[in-house]
């Protein structure tokens, strides 16, 4: 890591947030000036909580968080608050400052150039695409010119060009930055250290190097721990066998047997707890709606945004059971708008056959009622499943008994994504519409999700900017909205 002065220090920080189990347990780590650090860990482990503790939106239950004197902090959150959707872009950036900035337009122009976004300052936030909103979130932190920049999943919704632009910015960035992300290739381009939040110990492990270095070190450590335990188990077994043999003898042999049993017990205590890795969601199936035949989805035309103008375009897409359509295109061109029109059926440009159930994974999770508990959310799409069956489905997505009665709004973004998949499993859709289903999801889960989508027997329409994920999925037709 860069050897600047220490500007942030967590000292034995404990945080429970009213939970039965702590989120953070005596967490210790430090960040030095000029370093570029990755914060990693399982969905729901508490990574965003650490960011909110740094910004002082939350306070630790115990321990101390020391921020260097005069050090300013700004955070780019994962999603724009729904309360901000009605703001203009100018009002949105003005809200980033505690005091009114009278000459804010030049600052906005400069930061929009950094994030490679062209838009009018009076445009309403809600009208921006998911990818454009991701750029606005990044810009909202950069415009504050902080000493410590916190980025929470900044590549979510960004297209390839947007990720390249952000990567270049971070490589050249000369201040301190901490990034939460599940995109290993992105992280490895600029990271010089990793803070790994262990889901099981609730502590931070600090590593030098990038994510690949972390994996190598963890793998070597687990091998050492397993090797030590295997050697101890062999010696323990030998001592137990000898003690059993001598226990049946008389006199001094019984004393020897007792000593051997004591030694075996001591070696049992020497065994180390082998590091446990993050859990992966269980393999799952999305059942397709039964009894469907013929054409399920037809798209005759669509609207795309070019040079900030809406252009109508004729197409001829007809999808039957088992067909998969991939929608490609840059941020803001109209992919999400097209998906919304498919689901809402408010346009004559696309038609879903009568009686077809649609499973819709929205990138902004607006299909979820944030005031519902997980159980209520799952139950709302269930027809005849018992509480036990719903809880079993939830458990497969790592929504355990501690979380199943938690409100959706209290979950991490990654956990909301897993709940969305659980709902789709319950719905048994004939048409599956997926808008950036990899956003916020732990990379360990992605192969499981890809395998599931390949087994799905209904019609699927997919939007994703994660090329490595798309390459794992069988695609029949690609519709590139840029062309």
Please describe what this structure looks like.
The chain has a 6-stranded mixed sheet, with helices on both faces. Strands 14-15-16-12-17 form a 5-stranded parallel sheet, sandwiched between helices. The protein is built from 14 helices and 17 strands. It has 2 domains: 6-215, P-loop containing nucleotide triphosphate hydrolases (Rossmann fold, 3-Layer(aba) Sandwich); 295-480, Rossmann fold, CATH 3.40.50.300. By secondary structure, the chain is of the alpha/beta class. The mean pLDDT is 87. Helix 3 packs across helix 4 (130-142).
Keywords:
483 residues, 14 helices, Rossmann fold, globular, single chain, 2 domains, 22% strand, six-stranded mixed sheet
Task: Draw up the topology in text.
Elements: E1 6-15, E2 24-32, E3 36-41, H1 47-54, E4 62-67, E5 73-76, H2 89-94, H3 104-115, H4 130-142, E6 148-152, H5 160-172, E7 176-180, H6 184-188, E8 193-197, E9 204-208, H7 211-247, H8 252-270, E10 295-306, E11 309-320, E12 324-328, H9 335-344, E13 350-352, E14 358-361, H10 374-379, H11 387-396, H12 413-427, E15 431-435, H13 446-455, E16 459-463, H14 467-470, E17 477-480
Parallel strand pairs: 3-7, 3-8, 5-6, 6-7, 12-16, 12-17, 14-15, 15-16
Antiparallel strand pairs: 1-2, 1-4, 8-9, 10-11, 10-13
Helix pairs in contact: 3-4, 7-8, 11-12
